[in-house]
Amino acid sequence: MSQKNTIIAIFIVFVVALLLSEGEPKKLAHWDYSEDKGPKEWANLDERYNMCGEGKNQSPINITDSIDAELLPLRLKGESKAETFVNNGHSVQVNFNNGSYINISDKKYSLKQIHFHTPSENQIKGKSYPMEAHLVHTDSYDNIAVIAVMFEEGNNDNLTLNKLLRNLPEKYEDEIITENVKSIVTGYEILPENRDYYLYNGSLTTPPCNEGVKWFVLKNAVKISKSQLDDFTKVMPKNNRPIQEINARTILH
Predict the structure, then answer these.
(1) Which positions carry the signal peptide feature in this UniProt record (predicted)?
(2) In this structure, is residue 6 part of a structural domain?
(3) Catalytic positions, please?
């Protein structure tokens, strides 16, 4: 091969490698709840997290004043079973197969996963709870709706949460698949019987903090024993985002 052809070949290889590298999506920056990479710094860690600092409809919030809008009851359908239990380093997450869903304005939002925060992220009239669960749903266009339920300390074990605790992945990146679960967990059984709720428009409470999330915050808390709460906090010592400004939003009940 002539020197000229060699130079051309090297140039082509260089250009192809450059194009391939530019085509690869840049990995999202690591975030957590520490001082250096926690909520105050999220917007500075990655330009794709800018909504964490610039958004005007962020979550969580302190639910204080709300307007009586005679909201329709939550229409919960199906009994999908947990597929995997995962410790993703930010929370304990339970992933579900298709089957459970809610109808919102005649649109179907399927339950995808439940994860937990200790202590609670949202507050109700200034009250923070020891733990909060988020039941994350999406529609066919990937719009998100979250049912949030609070947990408060009681005298007895919560039998449903015992099922979760039997499968609790204690270490980061631990994953327990359906075939190995020790108890069957279905989607909506952790919710209280009374499902009255507050409704507001908010965001994801973790990066990238995207807005446009419909939040259904249940008014009634679920009881959990101190020992159960201790088991959760051993795995998730503190993973809650601070309260965000309500700004011009309206909260309905």
Answers:
(1) none
(2) no
(3) 90
